[in-house]
Sequence to fold (181 residues):
Amino acid sequence: MFSGEFPPEKVNVAASGVLAPLSFDGDLLANYAAAKAADFLHHPAADANNRATENKAAQDVVVAALKVSPIRPALWLTLGTLKAQAGELATPAVKMSYLAGAVPIAVAFARLQTVTSNAAAADEEIKLLAQSDVRAALANRSRYEQLLIAAYLQATPQGKSLLLEATRGTDPKFNQILRRY
Fold:
């Protein structure tokens, strides 16, 4: 979902949706949940009522997959992202995305964007955990510098504080760049 690949078409999601809820196969459920969530996140409904309904449906599918196979950090992040977009508390799901295991850099950066754009940035444990995502992004600074700046510009005040604190010791030069914004 966070790898930059486009989600499957609605027809494919609908077709896989027939078998997935009947399965206890964690991979099948996780793949269906990721496809359903990606479909919603990349193609949200135009009106607020349908958007809320689709978000809830995607959350339900993700929760069902996590009940069968809970050690999926990207799926926990997906749940947190969906909750954040619905205006719900995303902190527990985001925290679980850190605790469930390691993720690729693209997922770590997506997680950092989610953390800094909602109330999760105020949680002390998440602040500590998010430092690893900041370090990973700064290790690939040439690729993520502009994206980090964009995340900073879109961040909540707590998210901006988190990014400033995390970059202060890791990359003071980049910290100064952020402070200009």
In short: The chain has a mean pLDDT of 88.
